[in-house]
Every structure is written in structure tokens, then in C-alpha cells.
């Protein structure tokens, strides 16, 4: 009878990529949310309200 040991490895680069993408998304959300440019505001207006993000 043999016993197998399975190891799950999480690499640092994949974790760093996930963290980077998460914070980039948050930064884009807040940048568009507080933008005063009318073109950017109008382009993201409905999406922000759909996500309950106040913009005015």
C-alpha cells in the first residue's frame, strides 16, 4: 500500500497578477466615478448608477 502526497503550490507571480488586476479595476472605477470631463462622465454614467456608485 503506497501513500501519495499531493501538494498545491501557489506561485507568487499569479497572486501578484490577481492583486494588480484587482487594484487596477478599483482605480478605474473611482477615476471614472469622480471624473469631471463630460465625455467620460456621460460614457460611464448609466453603468455607475447600475452599480449604485454615486456620481452627483
Short description:
The chain has 2 helices and no strands. With 56 residues, it is mostly helical.
Tell me what the structure shows.
The chain has 56 residues and is an all-alpha fold. 62% of the residues lie in helices and 0% in strands. It is built from two helices and no strands.
List the helices and strands and how they pair.
Layout: H1 12-33, H2 38-50
Note poorly predicted spans: none
Strand content: under 5%
| Helix/strand/pairing category | mainly alpha
Summarize model confidence as the mean pLDDT: 76
Cα-atom radius of gyration: 20 Å
Strand count, sense and closure of the main sheet?
none
Strand segment count: 0
- Helix coverage percent of residues? 55-70%
- Number of helical regions: 2
Task: For the structure shown, list the relevant keywords.
2 helices, 56 residues, mainly alpha, 62% helix, elongated
Amino acid at each position: 500500500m503506497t501513500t501519495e502526497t499531493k501538494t498545491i503550490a501557489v506561485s507568487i507571480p499569479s497572486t501578484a497578477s490577481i492583486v494588480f488586476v484587482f487594484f487596477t479595476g478599483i482605480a478605474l472605477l473611482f477615476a471614472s466615478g469622480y471624473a469631471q470631463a463630460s465625455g467620460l462622465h456621460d460614457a460611464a454614467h448609466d453603468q455607475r448608477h447600475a452599480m449604485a456608485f454615486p456620481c452627483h
